[in-house]
């Protein structure tokens, strides 16, 4: 695939890649294909293996088994410094003794690029990340956001086959984070560069990626588009890791159906085989709960314990006997009259819910 | 301070002179009273003759003969030992930071602190016990077929004193330089590798320039320390390595010459002057090595 | 920590203040012993001992226990009179002694010093007049007519050697023999250390030189260095034990102590007075600082060191409880004889020989018959130092 | 990462050098201290002798006390000074740097004599005066150890973050900076402490009795005892410092892990 800049995008493929540290399986048979020009985010909690995967791709870590290919060419044995992959680290990765220009041209010098070409490329990169005025500044004179933009420019300057981003935003404060995130995405689409992005922040992954892979215990649980992942999680882990969810206990009352709160609700296909009488924990998204009349036979009564205004939505925390606080998201206009301490009735509107063994 | 792109808040550098000095007052008061005041006393005394008259006559012998020779020897010894000490100390620091566990490294810190402060008769004894004519190492090497005393080597020579000095110079370097190596972040090496550079390039372009200011600082410390150390050389040899502080000791605190303290004081001031000159060189080197660090 | 520190400072200051107070009380109560200039003026031995015992303490300074038998002198003094001795900086120098008299806080000033003669000459005003009972026996060359300082003992330059070496040296000339390769050492840089300087004078004399120029002595060491016999190791106990050298030029008055010390560490050492030259050192000098904190004890200590008695030693002395001061004093060995036992030449030696009050010197420390004994003058020593400053580095350096 | 032969060359060279320069001399000296009566056989007699000396414990205690106070004084004085120096008063750095190197240049003999002339009597009458001079003599080391360490942390960022969250200067230094430069602080403390434990010249010139000055007299007629004393001082000081550092490591994340293994399991 060729993009607007005339660059060729690559395909990155991992097949059965594992990494063991003694008994610990940091990565356990990862299969992943990143298509040309695609941005795939690997999402998961600490220790799930996502960073290990990224580092294996970069050549900073060795895989115990499995193969790594770029455009069909095996890369396992290629030394890290010959892989032509641009990587952006979490923080502090700029060389403090080199100024912005020198940092960006570091990879170009290593490639013995002629001085004139080098300064041309640096200028391009500075424009790309909108830091033309800081060309001579040293890293400690830049803000965190600016530093990460330089890091991105430095990684892109070598025209990498694949761009690797290792939690590039986690050291930044919230406001800058959103801004840089959008910038990364803009540049990535602009250059059409195949990108692997590692993060533990589901909101970040969902908002930036073409596809998100959720990892747990060294394994890829599910990889899908953000919307698919959110609406059709393939496992309880994915369901609770992606987006907010209430965990409410219940019991299987018939084949594929469970009694949850005062309602009987179908279980998703993935978990419909639970035996009768199984105690379960259902995973229910806050926006699938609505307020209802006290007289509704399916209604559950509760006490408002928490009310937080989130702009268009307001989050209510409702205390129900025998259950942790249940969160309900409701249009702010609908809850003006509700106060903490007031009793309300609500019910689940979802037609199907994800559940796991209690 | 110099470039327009600096974005840091003004408060960091701006401030009035007073607010900059104020937090340093305890330090200046302390060193002023316990260091400068006694030093001034010495300096003033060096400008007096034996009858109490003001004179520069104490300084004239410094430029000739045995005193000049002592200055040259002192500078030579401290240069040689600080070069050896700083290079080997840096090597040790690197190896330990890179390959040792935290616990082992903590124990090494303790050992280094004690070694760095060792000297005098006990240290001289240790090296004679190891490298003297009847020393442990000497005997072991002899059984292996190498008689180190066959040639010109003796532990009671300049070379020997240099060896003994390593015992405190290397640990001193190790201790003060280790944090600098520890400050090298793994990400820098990884970023460098990722950008296509070899390890060698990384060391040449990033690691060594990063370490340079600390290295220069530590080197200067070793130089100054070597310049003023004398107890070990004195406990080991008999005028083989005539050092300025040994002569000062003899003049100011000896059994032989009475009433030459003023000359001793002049020698002490001479040492301060040499150190001051070295200091200027050090500040210059430090500045040019740390350009990237000044905001 | 700060609080603790302040308490410490205050406590120490109070302690010091009380010390000053008690010492002034003791002098005010009885006689002022800081002014009396001889035993009679001090009220006789009984009164002096009584007053000294009341002070209870004696500050001495830079007295190594194995130097000139001072360990025995101090032990005997304490056992006989029950006066506790504090020895400040046993390895210190004459300059340190003078410095301390000049600048130390009142309670730390030494009660008596034992310094090189030039230090006494340059600082006469620091000392008080006190003429000991045996004043007349002190050689006139080595006493201040006013009694502010006077010589106490001297030594001759001897050779000390490890008896395990194949050939025992008898003279300085012997040391040129190839069998002494890597064996001969001296006690410091001769341009700065007294013992080493006297070693050069001795070698000079043995090589036929006059004390007016030590060139022959310098050449002697140069040839030893060339032949590899001279090692530039500092001669001291630890270096000797480690095998740094086997033969050294040493003061005779340290001999018995050094031999015993070496024996404890498993080395057999012998001292020999060389047959080809004897250099006798300028005597060390005793003086009482005018601000001595224990004036009576200071005077008693001085009388003790110049006493020619032959009596009990620290090993043989019994209880002295109930004895009068003069009885104790006359029952114990005096300092002059203690020095003889230590291999030193006490200042009143000639008078003692005449009066037959001297004890027999330990074997091997007698001066061989017919050898010329020379004591270099201060001027000769200064000339030698100048010469050595210029030439020594070429010998010791390499 | 892969084990390279380079690593083993470095480790091997370091080990060999340590053996030659540090281990053999110390070991050779130590063997003397285990000689028995009259230098024969092997025994602990010299150490027993040591413990039997009257002055052993009191002087050891004095030295430990003074050295510890000197270490603490050094830190109390130098940590804030160095922080301000690096943060706000860069222009004074050469001056402070020079003042801190001075104690190394001035012969201690001269300093001590100057001190005797310059200090008032009440200071000279307290053994705690040594604490000040130990701290002075330790300045070159404390300065360098702290400075090197401060260079490795983003000081400005830390302070701004802490101050913006409302922390006082004292709290900022104690809770933010001190933990960040722990290794430098320990290094400075150890150097000052070890110096105080072993300091001889100024102590003796100011007429105080501490462990090192007591040693000279105590072991004057017992060479093997003197050697046992120096071996004891060496090993004792190392053991003490090592214990302190190992205890102080508890609860904090080991630094080497921080820089070495981070990310491996993430």
Summarize it.
By secondary structure, chain A is α+β, with helices and mostly antiparallel strands.
What does this structure look like?
- The complex is a heterotetramer of chains A (358), B (295), C (398) and D (266).
- Chain A has 358 residues and is α+β, with helices and mostly antiparallel strands.
- Chain A is built from nine helices and 20 strands.
- Chain B has a single domain, classed as MetI-like fold, CATH 1.10.3720.10.
- Chain B has twelve helices and no strands.
- In chain B, helix 7 packs across helix 9 and helix 9 runs antiparallel to helix 12.
- Chain C folds into two domains: 195 residues, D-Maltodextrin-Binding Protein, domain 2, CATH 3.40.190.10; 153 residues, D-Maltodextrin-Binding Protein, domain 2, CATH 3.40.190.10.
- In chain C, helix 3 links the parallel strand 1 and strand 2.
- The longest helix of chain C has 28 residues.
- The radius of gyration of chain C is 23 Å and the shape is globular.
- The relative contact order of chain C is 0.17.
- The N terminus of chain C is likely disordered.
- Chain D is globular, with a radius of gyration of 22 Å.
- The C terminus of chain D is likely disordered.
- Chains in contact: A-B, A-D, B-C, B-D, C-D.
- Chains B and C meet through helix 3, helix 5, helix 10 and helix 11 of B and helix 4, helix 5, helix 6, strand 9 and helix 8 of C.
Question: Topology, pairings included?
Answer:
The complex is a heterotetramer of chains A (358), B (295), C (398) and D (266).
Chain A: E1 12-21, E2 24-34, E3 39-43, H1 50-58, E4 65-70, E5 73-74, E6 85-88, H2 100-104, H3 106-110, H4 115-128, H5 144-157, E7 162-166, H6 174-191, E8 194-199, H7 202-208, E9 211-216, E10 219-224, H8 226-231, H9 236-241, E11 246-254, E12 257-260, E13 263-267, E14 279-284, E15 289-291, E16 300-309, E17 313-319, E18 326-331, E19 343-348, E20 352-357
Parallel strand pairs in A: 3-8, 3-9, 6-7, 7-8, 13-20
Antiparallel strand pairs in A: 1-2, 1-4, 4-5, 9-10, 11-12, 11-14, 12-13, 14-20, 15-19, 16-17, 16-19, 17-18
Chain B: H1 17-21, H2 25-46, H3 65-99, H4 102-116, H5 120-131, H6 136-143, H7 158-182, H8 186-194, H9 199-228, H10 231-236, H11 244-252, H12 261-289
Helix pairs in contact in B: 2-12, 3-7, 3-9, 4-7, 7-9, 8-9, 9-12, 11-12
Chain D: H1 5-33, H2 45-52, H3 56-87, H4 93-105, H5 108-118, H6 121-124, H7 129-151, H8 155-164, H9 169-180, H10 182-198, H11 201-205, H12 211-218, H13 223-249, H14 255-260
Helix pairs in contact in D: 1-13, 2-13, 3-7, 3-10, 4-7, 7-10, 8-9, 10-13
């Amino acid at each position: 695939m060729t993009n607007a800049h005339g660059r060729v995008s690559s395909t990155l493929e991992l097949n059965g890649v594992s990494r063991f540290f003694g008994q610990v399986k940091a990565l356990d048979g990862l299969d992943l294909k990143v298509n040309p020009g695609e941005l795939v985010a690997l999402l998961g909690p600490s220790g799930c293996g996502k960073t290990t995967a990224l580092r294996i791709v970069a050549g900073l870590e060795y895989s115990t088994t499995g193969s790594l290919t770029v455009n069909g060419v095996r890369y396992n044995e290629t030394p890290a410094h010959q892989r032509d992959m641009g990587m952006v680290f979490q923080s502090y990765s700029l060389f403090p003794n080199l100024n912005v220009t020198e940092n960006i041209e570091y990879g170009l010098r290593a490639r013995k690029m002629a001085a004139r070409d080098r300064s041309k490329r640096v200028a391009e990169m500075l424009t790309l990340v909108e830091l033309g005025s800081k060309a001579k500044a040293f890293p400690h004179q830049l803000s965190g956001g600016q530093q990460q933009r330089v890091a991105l420019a430095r990684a892109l300057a070598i025209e990498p086959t694949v761009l690797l981003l290792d939690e590039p935003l986690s050291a930044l404060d919230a406001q800058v984070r959103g801004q840089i995130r959008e910038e990364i995405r803009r540049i990535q689409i602009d250059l059409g560069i195949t990108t692997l992005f590692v993060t533990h922040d589901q909101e970040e992954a969902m908002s930036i990626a073409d596809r998100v892979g959720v990892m747990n215990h060294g394994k890829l649980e599910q990889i899908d588009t953000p919307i698919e992942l959110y609406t059709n999680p393939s496992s309880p882990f994915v369901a609770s890791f992606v987006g907010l969810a209430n965990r409410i206990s219940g019991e299987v009352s018939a084949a594929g159906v469970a009694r949850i709160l005062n309602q009987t609700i179908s279980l998703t296909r993935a978990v419909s085989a639970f035996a009768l009488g199984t105690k379960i924990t259902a995973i229910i998204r806050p926006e699938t709960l609505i307020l209802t009349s006290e007289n509704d036979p399916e209604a559950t009564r509760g006490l408002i314990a928490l009310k937080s205004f989130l702009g268009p939505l307001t989050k209510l925390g409702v205390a129900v006997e025998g259950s942790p606080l249940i969160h309900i998201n409701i249009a702010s206009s609908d809850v003006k009259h509700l106060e903490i301490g007031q009793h309300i009735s609500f019910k689940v509107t979802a037609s199907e819910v994800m559940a796991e063994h209690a | 301070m110099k470039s327009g792109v600096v974005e840091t808040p003004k408060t960091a550098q701006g401030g009035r002179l007073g607010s900059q000095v104020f937090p340093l007052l305890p330090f200046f008061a302390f060193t002023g009273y316990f260091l400068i005041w006694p030093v001034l006393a010495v300096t003033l005394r060096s400008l007096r003759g034996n009858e109490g008259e003001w004179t520069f006559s104490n300084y004239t012998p410094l430029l000739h003969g045995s005193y000049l020779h002592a200055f040259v020897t002192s500078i030579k010894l401290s240069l040689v030992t600080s070069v050896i000490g700083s290079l080997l100390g840096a090597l040790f620091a690197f190896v330990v930071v890179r390959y040792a566990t935290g616990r082992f490294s903590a124990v090494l810190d303790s050992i280094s602190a004690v070694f760095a402060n060792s000297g005098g008769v006990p240290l001289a004894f240790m090296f004679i016990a190891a490298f003297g004519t009847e020393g442990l190492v000497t005997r072991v090497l002899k059984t292996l077929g190498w008689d180190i005393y066959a040639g010109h080597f003796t532990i009671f020579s300049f070379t020997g004193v240099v060896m003994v000095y390593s015992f405190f110079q290397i640990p001193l370097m190790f201790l003060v330089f280790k944090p600098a190596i520890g400050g090298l972040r793994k990400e820098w090496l990884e970023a460098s590798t990722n950008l296509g550079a070899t390890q060698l390039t990384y060391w040449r372009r990033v690691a060594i320039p990063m370490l340079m200011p600390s290295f220069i600082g530590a080197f200067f410390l070793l130089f100054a320390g070597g310049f003023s150390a004398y107890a070990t050389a004195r406990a080991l040899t008999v005028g083989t390595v005539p050092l300025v502080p040994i002569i000062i000791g003899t003049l100011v605190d000896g059994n032989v010459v009475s009433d030459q303290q003023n000359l001793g004081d002049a020698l002490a001031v001479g040492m301060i002057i040499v150190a001051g000159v070295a200091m200027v060189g050090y500040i210059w080197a430090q500045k040019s090595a740390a350009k990237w660090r000044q905001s | 920590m700060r609080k603790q520190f302040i308490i410490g400072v205050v406590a120490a200051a109070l302690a010091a203040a009380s010390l000053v107070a008690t010492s002034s009380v003791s002098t005010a109560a009885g006689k002022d012993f800081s002014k009396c200039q001889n035993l009679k003026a001090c009220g006789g031995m009984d009164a002096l001992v009584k007053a000294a015992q009341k002070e209870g303490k004696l500050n001495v300074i830079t007295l190594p226990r194995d130097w000139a038998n001072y360990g025995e002198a101090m032990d005997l003094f304490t056992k006989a009179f029950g006066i506790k001795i504090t020895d400040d900086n046993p390895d210190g120098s004459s300059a340190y002694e003078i410095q301390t008299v000049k600048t130390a806080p009142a309670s730390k000033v030494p009660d008596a010093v034992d310094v090189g003669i030039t230090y006494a000459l340059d600082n006469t005003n620091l000392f008080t007049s006190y003429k000991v009972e045996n004043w007349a026996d002190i050689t006139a060359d080595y006493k201040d007519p006013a009694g502010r300082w006077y010589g106490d003992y001297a030594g001759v330059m001897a050779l000390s050697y490890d008896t395990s070496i194949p050939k025992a040296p008898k003279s300085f000339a012997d040391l040129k023999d190839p069998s002494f390769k890597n064996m001969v050492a001296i006690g410091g840089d001769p341009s700065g250390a007294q013992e080493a300087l006297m070693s050069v004078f001795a070698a000079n004399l043995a090589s036929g030189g006059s004390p007016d120029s030590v060139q022959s002595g310098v050449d002697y060491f140069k040839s030893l260095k060339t032949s590899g016999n001279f090692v530039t190791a500092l001669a001291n106990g630890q270096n000797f034990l480690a095998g740094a050298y086997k033969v050294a030029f040493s003061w005779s008055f340290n001999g018995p102590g050094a031999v015993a010390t070496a024996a404890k560490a498993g080395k057999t050492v012998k001292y020999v007075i060389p047959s080809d030259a004897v250099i006798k050192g300028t005597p060390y000098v005793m003086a009482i600082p005018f601000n001595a904190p224990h004036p009576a004890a200071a005077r008693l200590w001085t009388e003790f060191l110049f006493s020619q008695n032959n009596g009990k030693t620290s090993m043989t002395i019994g209880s002295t409880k109930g004895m009068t001061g003069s009885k104790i004093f006359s029952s114990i060995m005096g300092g002059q004889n203690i020095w003889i036992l230590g291999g030193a030449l006490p200042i009143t030696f000639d008078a003692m020989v005449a009066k037959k009050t001297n004890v027999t010197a330990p074997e091997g420390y007698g001066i061989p018959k017919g050898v010329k004994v020379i004591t270099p003058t201060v001027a000769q020593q200064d000339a030698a130092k100048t010469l050595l400053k210029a030439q020594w580095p070429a010998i010791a350096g390499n | 990462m892969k084990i390279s032969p380079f690593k083993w060359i470095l480790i091997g060279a370091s080990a060999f050098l340590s053996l030659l320069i540090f281990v053999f001399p110390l070991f050779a000296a130590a063997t003397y201290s285990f000689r028995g009566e009259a230098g024969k056989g092997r025994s602990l007699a010299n150490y027993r002798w040591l413990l039997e000396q009257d002055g052993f414990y009191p002087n050891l205690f004095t030295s430990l006390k003074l050295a510890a106070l000197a270490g603490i004084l050094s830190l109390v004085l130098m940590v804030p000074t160095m922080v301000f120096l690096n943060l706000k008063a860069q222009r004074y750095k050469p001056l402070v740097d020079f003042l801190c190197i001075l104690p190394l240049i001035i012969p201690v003999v001269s300093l001590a004599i100057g001190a005797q002339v310059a200090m008032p009597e009440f200071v000279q009458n307290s053994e705690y005066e040594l604490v000040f001079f130990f701290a002075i003599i330790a300045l070159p080391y404390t300065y360098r150890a702290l400075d090197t360490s401060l260079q490795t942390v983003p000081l400005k960022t830390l302070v701004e973050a802490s101050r913006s969250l409302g922390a006082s200067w004292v709290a900022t230094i104690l809770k933010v900076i001190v933990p960040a430069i722990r290794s430098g602080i320990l290094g400075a403390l150890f150097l000052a402490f070890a110096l105080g434990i072993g300091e001889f010249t100024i102590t003796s010139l100011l007429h105080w009795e501490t462990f090192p000055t007591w040693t000279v007299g105590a072991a004057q007629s017992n060479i093997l005892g003197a050697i046992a004393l120096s071996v004891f001082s060496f090993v004792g000081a190392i053991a003490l410092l090592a214990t302190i550092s190992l205890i102080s490591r508890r609860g904090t994340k080991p630094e080497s892990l921080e820089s070495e293994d981070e990310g491996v399991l993430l």
